[in-house]
Amino acid sequence: MRTDLHGPLSAYAARLHATAGDRHHVASPLGAWLLLAIAATTADPATAEGAAAELAQALGTDLPSAAEVARTLLDAPHPLVGSATALWHRPGQGDGGQAAWRAALPSTTAVGVLPDQAGLDAWAREHTLGLIETFPLRVGPDVVLALASALATRVSWATPFGVADARALGAGSPWAGRLRQALRSPSQGHRCAIVSTAQAGDVIVHAAPAQTTDGAGLVVLSVAAAPQVPPAEVLAVAYDLSAGAADGAQPAGSRSLFDLPLGETPLWTLTEERVRTRARDGREERHSAVLPCWSARSEHDLTAPALGFPAVAATLATAMTLPVERFEARQTAVARFDRYGFEAAAVTAMFGLTSLPPEGVARTAELRFGHPYAVVAVATDTRAGGTAGPWHGLPVFSAWVAEPEEVSVA
């Protein structure tokens, strides 16, 4: 079943990327959206009406639909995109009450006792192919619940890039003088187009497909607009064009090269030559692309109300009957794009926090059985209905310990 997520995820991505602005960064809007959707599985609008409405607004769809999408994606993992989610709580907190919210979670979502920091870091490494070594948040004694997702991929291109002199990026490129080499798309296997869009005018598009596994693949789409177009608009166009990228379709609005003037623009160089061609009208169109290698590591604060995590904290606190008073939410994301492939990972995390008890004085007594002492073994006997049986409270064995022995090493 194909999930109807593209519209809600595009809207969520616009809000998340807006928090980073125009700085170099990588993010996983899907990784954050999935945490909201997991919270949606636990939501009871009757007991958390305000939080449920805020959560639905952030998700861009109703809660049952979001919950079903989360279960569908996580319970049928993609062969090339590893995914993991977890909901942890403090021992003795959040593990009581009704079990309905547990049953509604995706079956692959781990539920259990909150790990220590070393355990959280190990979880991040395990589920990101080692690309992210530390959990985005630092656990403390005031954390009563944690919700986390991890997404990771490492793929090789079906057809690797060639190499070009970086000056091929164009005389107006700020990178042409800083780099020695760039990547050139191969003559076959990659897809390129010049596309007319309402939001950003003409944009250039390059699609690099990865090697497939069991019929599943990954296509990395690169989209550039004129330098003056704001990043938010270019990202929005990229999300729009990504809807057809998986099917290999020619993007809507693709322009014929014979409708464009010859010469240089900030986005392309168009030339013409006489060739032998089997094109029906004798006019053959060829595309190639020159791109730089790149890598990024980013940290994103996800506490802005528009990103939905205030509602997640309130929803889970209600479902799990936990004294959550405030929250933290953060995402760590990394990516690398080079001649032979692409790798990326993201860990998204939210902590529900409570106030620590007021500071006071504690005394600790260590009891020392260092001389002869008595021992009595008493039976417990609780029968059906909670009534005490005849053995309950009966001393069965007793002893006086006067000759201690060495601790066994076995």
From TrEMBL:
Protein name: Serpin (Serine protease inhibitor)
Annotated InterPro entries: Serpin_sf, Serpin_sf_1
Gene3D superfamilies assigned to the protein according to its UniProt record, in alphabetical order: Antithrombin, subunit I, domain 2
Organism listed in the record: Micromonospora saelicesensis
